[in-house]
């Protein structure tokens, strides 16, 4: 039987709750479709940090490298460890080390889910650059604590980094409606964002069948709310993609429904799948986190592993669940009720 | 009779259309309230650039300095002059040179206006830092045009700059509901945004009556759509404020309703008032731009000049107009119909 080796990183807070739920669904889906998933779980988290002084062992990245994929819950618990430490010690290094440069986030309303917008006919695929740009971690502070203090934070964009994510966007657009929206702020950031726009222009010559439009991030944020149905594939930098995908999560009814895949398109290292939501310490382990975003992320993992039919079955089970109203209203149903429904539809 | 000297900068595209409309309203409002507005109009714009090689004369800033306030339409016409040239040659230098560090943008639904959200009970005041941060214009590119090219863009935050905008935010919050939301991305940008969060913490000790909460920009964007009524005063950096205020414009029904004030709180130089929208070349001079954002910005100017009662009368005239459905639906009414209605209510 075909077996995939999966590293489970439940992480912190509700990350643990939703990973357990997603895993139950994925295991069952695999079993009844003739393959198996072999999980190894690692306790890397803020609790781990408090005991060991680091978010993961020194050889953490090397340990993960041998897996076929990584399923992550959520990282961070600010009351225990500052986010700037926990996230830079676990989540962000994995994205970078494994060159998971394409962060894919689908935004559409599941059946039975009511979003905050009056209009609900949209199906947006956000492609977020995931390894450089505004998240380069380059910067510093001088005259710390004095009136004269200055902090700088430098965004670093490389042609390689920008070109590959744009190319990924063009390919996705080609496979969907042929419409690509590229998001910058080149009217205010004249180095990084003008650079991005130039590369977009250059690549567009290679994709004459794709209609690419450049938007400023402010205009795009407004458009996602005023005319989301005018968008299809949206490609953006690390920070802009982060903002737009939380907005995307909002219009699709909330973070409980927002799935994501951190993809290494060359398959030179494992890809990682995680719900967009955070660890939500306030509701951790109360059994009330919505596992749908995590299960959906798991479906994206199956698809990436080449098990598209099984991925589609998981998605159909999620959709049948929300269509019945289960898990469709944030906060209404318990984690295990939603999970049980997905499992039972799965048959 | 008390006279205020106003510099008019209609700028490009619909900037000219809406400035004319706003001026008609402001003049009439002044007349019937015992003061006068003395306008000097400057043609600085992309057309000016094409003729003169710069967006304004070398002594442009000095020329503007002697005015009591500046009323601006919109700057930019990318088909004529790249935005990175036009905006860095006119709009952004004024904000910086005159230390207009507080960009104030109110977001609420005018009567009769239907926004894109199902929920419409919100009244948000965004305070955007306007002189530094992500708009510092610091950066560069190496190995231009090669595969090895790298572009960097550096955000520069000074303690002076961050402290004064946060203080402005705390004061506004104190004058309103006592609730302040401060927006950063300190989980990913560990120099600039952690710095901002630290200063927020420090200042909060001075404002025990203000309840301040820090949000990440992604979470705030989602919140503005999912629970806008949970927000009151929101303070953010230059870029984050830019994004949030276009989102604010969207939830208030569109850019035709979004007003703004670029304030120099120390009054050491003139403040500038402008609609949030751009120059919209595609509809320039067709007589169909909505002048409400510009008129509202004019009301903010009157308030800043100390003519609060007249400002309130202008706002009431806008509200009576939209309540009748005039100007309430984007694209429905012509500029002069909307302006005529505001003028006639003004009496
Ligand atoms: C936790 C945080 C650093 C992260 C990000 O901004 O990338 C999260 O918001 C996300 O979108 O995955
Ligand atoms: C035109 C552009 C540079 C400007 C900005 O980003 O500041 C505009 O979007 C605004 O919000 O006033």
From TrEMBL, chains A, B:
Residues in Isopropylmalate dehydrogenase-like domain copies: 5-342
Enzyme Commission identifier(s): 1.1.1.83, 1.1.1.93, 4.1.1.73
Pathway: Carbohydrate acid metabolism; tartrate degradation; 2-hydroxy-3-oxosuccinate from meso-tartrate: step 1/1; Carbohydrate acid metabolism; tartrate degradation; D-glycerate from L-tartrate: step 1/1; Carbohydrate acid metabolism; tartrate degradation; 2-hydroxy-3-oxosuccinate from L-tartrate: step 1/1
Cofactor entry: Mg(2+); Mn(2+); K(+)
Reaction(s) the record says it catalyses: (2R,3R)-tartrate + H(+) = (R)-glycerate + CO2; (R)-malate + NAD(+) = pyruvate + CO2 + NADH; (2R,3S)-tartrate + NAD(+) = 2-hydroxy-3-oxosuccinate + NADH + H(+); (2R,3R)-tartrate + NAD(+) = 2-hydroxy-3-oxosuccinate + NADH + H(+)
InterPro entries: ICDH/IPMDH, IsoCit/isopropylmalate_DH_CS, IsoPropMal-DH-like_dom, TTC_DH
One annotated Gene Ontology cellular component of this protein: cytoplasm
Gene Ontology MF term list: D-malate dehydrogenase (decarboxylating) (NAD+) activity; magnesium ion binding; NAD binding; tartrate decarboxylase activity; tartrate dehydrogenase activity
Entry keyword set: Lyase, Manganese, Metal-binding, NAD, Oxidoreductase
PROSITE patterns, A to Z: IDH_IMDH
Function, as annotated: Has multiple catalytic activities. Apart from catalyzing the oxidation of (+)-tartrate to oxaloglycolate, also converts meso-tartrate to D-glycerate and catalyzes the oxidative decarboxylation of D-malate to pyruvate.
Family recorded in the similarity comment: Belongs to the isocitrate and isopropylmalate dehydrogenases family.
NCBIfam families assigned: TTC (TIGR02089)
Protein name as it appears in the record: D-malate dehydrogenase [decarboxylating]
